[in-house]
Amino acid sequence: MGIECAAVYSDADDRAAHVSEADYAVRIGPARALDSYLNVNAILEAAKASGADAVHPGYGFLSENSMFARACAISKLNFIGPPVEAIEKMGSKAAARQLMSDGGVPVIPGYHGEDQTDERLFAEAKSIGFPVLIKPVMGGGGKGMYIVYDETDFGEALNASRGVASSAFGDSRVLLEKYIAQSRHVEVQIFGDKHGNHVHLWERDCSVQRRHQKIIEEAPAPDLGDALRSKFGRAAVAAAKQVKYENAGTVEFILDVSDGKREFYFLEMNTRLQVEHPVTE
């Protein structure tokens, strides 16, 4: 494309391929990520020093950090990613569920209210019906998620989830979802521009996981059929439009296949370019 690229690196990566292949390379700190790849000021200084007009956050570290995206805007740097508002809304599982529900995107039966008392959460869990899944509102990567099969175990699991949520995400709030035991995990690649146009580039099946981390992805997802595949695409585009999404992103769904069902529900949106994007390409 004829666009010069400046790479940043820590001491751990001074001989990495991206350092030698970029037009310019700027050291941003020692090996520890907190002092380099998570150091917003160091990255912004590197961008200014190299004369960059834009910052591409990649797929890790600060890629879904709304404060970093806002800092880029303040520094007159184009953040190659979604708007700050989209990152913030999709970063909260509770806010994302409500937003998707308002936009007609199917969501898993559950509870994501502000009343976080033990009594209210227990009552909601019984109303949903066990087994239920307890998830941190601001969580990710499967951290703090607990499956509760019986109401006698709810209190212990709730405390454990809150503890992880508080220490890992700085927010002890949780939400409840109906646990779907027989399911598939299907995600849809979406793109949006600044003019309100949104498209999907079909789906990937990422059901093979270990500890909530994806191991194998396949595109197209097997055994969906054209009708269901189209429904996934339409729902993903609706989700993107609901949050006024821009750039590349992924909308994740869970497909209930128990008792011959073929119903799917919104799971979350990844407001960044995913590691798995080459599977779609």
UniProtKB/TrEMBL annotation:
Signal peptide (residue range): none
Keyword annotations from UniProtKB, A to Z: ATP-binding, Biotin, Ligase, Nucleotide-binding
The organism's place on the tree of life at top rank: Eukaryota
GO molecular function: ATP binding; ligase activity; metal ion binding
Pfam families in the cross-refs: Biotin_carb_N, CPSase_L_D2
PROSITE patterns documented for this protein: ATP_GRASP, BC, CPSASE_2
Domain ATP-grasp residues, every copy: 97-272
Family matches, as PANTHER family: CARBOXYLASE:PYRUVATE/ACETYL-COA/PROPIONYL-COA CARBOXYLASE, METHYLCROTONOYL-COA CARBOXYLASE SUBUNIT ALPHA, MITOCHONDRIAL-RELATED
Protein name: ATP-grasp domain-containing protein
Organism of provenance: Rhodosorus marinus
Taxonomic classification: Eukaryota, Rhodophyta, Stylonematophyceae, Stylonematales, Stylonemataceae
